[in-house]
């Protein structure tokens, strides 16, 4: 009798799965027993539509290995597109057990040079895209009384990075969206978690190299395979992950982190209330030792991955 696989009988929708992290998760999901909807718009790094070849190629690779998959070329930034890909999952496989919101684009630039169009486009794909697909999937999962939503956030939003105001805002928004989904849908046994992935992919390949230190950092990132992200994502999609919800993980090569969520660090109280002078003379001196430094992701994750 064949050995049961972790995702036997599950149906998983992975967005942006034509390459990089999404492709690795889709292929590993099929290998773990899931039927997979491979969504990819077939767009350039900045979001310009090209073709659906990448999704179809991933499906062909899955089927060649004996798995089940269908390709989807809808746009996550459009509610109709999200509904169509969820409908394709249920039409093809009868249900939908997990969504991996991985689709993304980059339009980096310093804040004082950023256009409305470049801010809007990135937020539409990352934040609205995660909302659109999750919202469409929620109706199916509520009827099933089960489901798992896995969203890709980033340390660019959780910690900070230069020249990524659009991407950082979207990715921090994704973390808050995930927490709200976890709270609102708990009664239907639907869970929601985030992963901040470190991996070399088409998106990270756009990082600008303007110093020897930056070149060294990029060279380290090239050693981080997208395959390293899949085990955590697929655990969260499996029944074994049923008691994990509302969390933020980071995966960095062979390291898995649980990321903190905003909580009060320190407080001051003054019974008679505050004035500008007392804030200056009493509150700020008491709070200043607990200020969060103006650091970026590389400052926090400063050691070599192992």
From TrEMBL:
<protein>
    <submittedName>
        <fullName>SDR family oxidoreductase</fullName>
    </submittedName>
</protein>
<comment type="similarity">
    <text>Belongs to the short-chain dehydrogenases/reductases (SDR) family.</text>
</comment>
<dbReference type="InterPro" id="IPR036291">
    <property type="entry name" value="NAD(P)-bd_dom_sf"/>
</dbReference>
<dbReference type="InterPro" id="IPR051687">
    <property type="entry name" value="Peroxisomal_Beta-Oxidation"/>
</dbReference>
<dbReference type="InterPro" id="IPR057326">
    <property type="entry name" value="KR_dom"/>
</dbReference>
<feature type="domain" description="Ketoreductase">
    <location>
        <begin position="10"/>
        <end position="206"/>
    </location>
</feature>
<dbReference type="InterPro" id="IPR020904">
    <property type="entry name" value="Sc_DH/Rdtase_CS"/>
</dbReference>
<dbReference type="InterPro" id="IPR002347">
    <property type="entry name" value="SDR_fam"/>
</dbReference>
<dbReference type="Pfam" id="PF00106">
    <property type="entry name" value="adh_short"/>
</dbReference>
